[in-house]
Each structure stands twice: as structure tokens, then as C-alpha cells.
Description:
The complex is a heterodimer of chains A (about 110) and B (about 120).
Chain A: E1 4-7, E2 10-14, E3 19-25, E4 29-37, E5 43-48, E6 52-56, E7 59-64, E8 69-74, E9 83-91, E10 99-100, E11 104-109
Parallel strand pairs in A: 2-11
Antiparallel strand pairs in A: 1-3, 3-8, 4-5, 4-9, 6-7, 7-8, 9-10, 9-11
Chain B: E1 5-7, E2 10-13, E3 19-24, E4 31-38, E5 42-50, E6 53-56, E7 65-71, E8 74-79, E9 88-98, E10 101-106, E11 110-114
Parallel strand pairs in B: 2-11
Antiparallel strand pairs in B: 1-3, 3-8, 4-5, 4-9, 5-6, 7-8, 9-10, 9-11
Amino acid sequence: GIQVEQSPPDLILQEGANSTLRCNFSDSVNNLQWFHQNPWGQLINLFYIPSGTKQNGRLSATTVATERYSLLYISSSQTTDSGVYFCAVVGETSGSRLTFGEGTQLTVNP
Amino acid sequence: DARVTQTPRHKVTEMGQEVTMRCQPILGHNTVFWYRQTMMQGLELLAYFRNRAPLDDSGMPKDRFSAEMPDATLATLKIQPSEPRDSAVYFCASGLRVTRAYEQYFGPGTRLTVT
């Protein structure tokens, strides 16, 4: 099946810093989503982005489908950005099954 | 504010007992997914339904797990009998069709502990 790799696995920032999270995937995709799992365990949709670029406030994401990677940018980070960021994809032969990466654990210190 | 709802949020039970988890998808979403999250395996798909019909339950242990969608507003996941290795967070997600795929929205999860 499709493989999803996220980097870095852990990231510690000071409040106000910027960061870039990366997601590599091994095959063509029909769907790519970024999620934030907050410290209470809730999975929050950030972006649906199988290709192209989107922005939402301090967050933006870019997927280059032909090169099989996606980037999530967090600018002016806040302590509430802490948690785990997951990239998840649906491969073209995977039906509708989301395959998740292992996540990036982000800690933003005040 | 449309959201996926799940009940119960927490469940502690003894080995051998039946566990039923419920999910109400977002109104208008015709696809429902069940995922399980553990420290060892991460997030993995158990089963999913479209228009209430099961499409893929290959991730689900068939001998003890069952998933149904009795109507468009309710999906259930049952474990009978439960075992300690079933301890995990179970997420339901509902899907909105976007071009070739479904954008999935997750509920808050049911944290199951089997002792």
C-alpha cells in the first residue's frame, strides 16, 4: 500500500517562530489532508489539498503532486499550535481509505 | 456548526463485555469511516460505509467486531467480546465528496479501556 513519511518527528519552537512540516508519499493520490491533533485528542481538519496551495490565517499548505510531497507552513506560532500534525492520503488505488503518517509532534513554548 | 458526534466519549469495561460505540455523521455526508488509534499502530482504518452499505471492512477483526449503519444518521461499532488489546481511541469520520475523493471530518473519538 501507499507509504506516508512525515518529518521532522519532533519540533520544539519558541512562540512567534515559523516552521515547515513535510509529508512525502510513495504513490499518486486522490486526497491529501492535514490534521492537527490537539492535546485533548481531537483531530481537526486543517487542509484538504491533493494539489496546489491553500492558506488559512497563519497556516498554509502546498502539495506538489508530481513530486509526491506536501508542506505545511505555520507562521508566528502560538502555544495553542502545540500538538501532533498528521498528513493523511488516499492513494489512487486505495478506495477511500486514508493512510496516515506517523505525525510531527510540535511543542510551542511561551 | 456541523460536526460529527460520538458517544460515549469514554468507556471502561471488563474483558468479555460487549461494547457499543455510536456515531452521528454530518448531515448530508453519505460516507462514514471508523478508525482506531493506538500508540503502537497509529491511526488505522477499520471499516467504511457509503450510502449505508459496507464497502471495506478489511481492517476489522471479523470474529469480534461488527459495524452497521441502521440509518443515515447513525453508525455503530460493536465489540463482542471485548479484550484488553482493544483498548484504543475509536474515531468516526464522515466524508464529503470533493472531485475524486472524500474530505473526511473526524468526531471527538471514544476512548475505550478494557481491563
